[in-house]
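Deliverable D4.2, example record:
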Amino acid sequence: MFSGPLTGRKVFAIFAGAFGVIILVNLTLAFNAVKTFSGLEVPNSYVASQTFDARRDAQEALGWTVTARVDGDYLHLRFTDANGADVRVASLAATVGRATTVAQDQTPEFTFNGSEYIAKAHLGPGNWNIRLQATSLDKVLFAQRLALYVTE
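Output generated by the structure prediction step:
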C-alpha cells in the first residue's frame, strides 16, 4: 500500500487511521451499552426512596429466604420462613435473564407443588439473574434478585 520512504504524511495517515478505529470502536460500544440497558431501575428514584424504608422493614419482617435451582428444563423456587417452613405466596412474578442483556429474558409461569414453585424455563449454561416479586398472603410485597449459575 505504501511504497517509498516513511514520510510525515504517511506517519500522520497511520496515526489518524489508528485513532479513527479506536474512536469508532468506542462509539459503537457506548451506543450498544446505552441501547441495551438505560441504567434506570425505577422511573423516579426520589419518589421510590420515600417508601423504601417501610417496604424494606415489612419485607424483612416476613423472614423469608428464597432459593433457586434448575432441574433439566424446569426452574424451582423455594420460599421458606424464618423457621425453615415452606411458604405459599399470594402471587409470584419473575423475570429470568442474563445480567448483560435483555435478549434472553423469560417470564416463566410458576405453579406451586406443595413445597416449591416450578416453571418450565430454557436456561443455557452460565450466569442468570432472577428478579422476582411475590406478595404474601397478608399483602406484603417481597422483591429480590437472585443469582443463579447453570452448569449444563
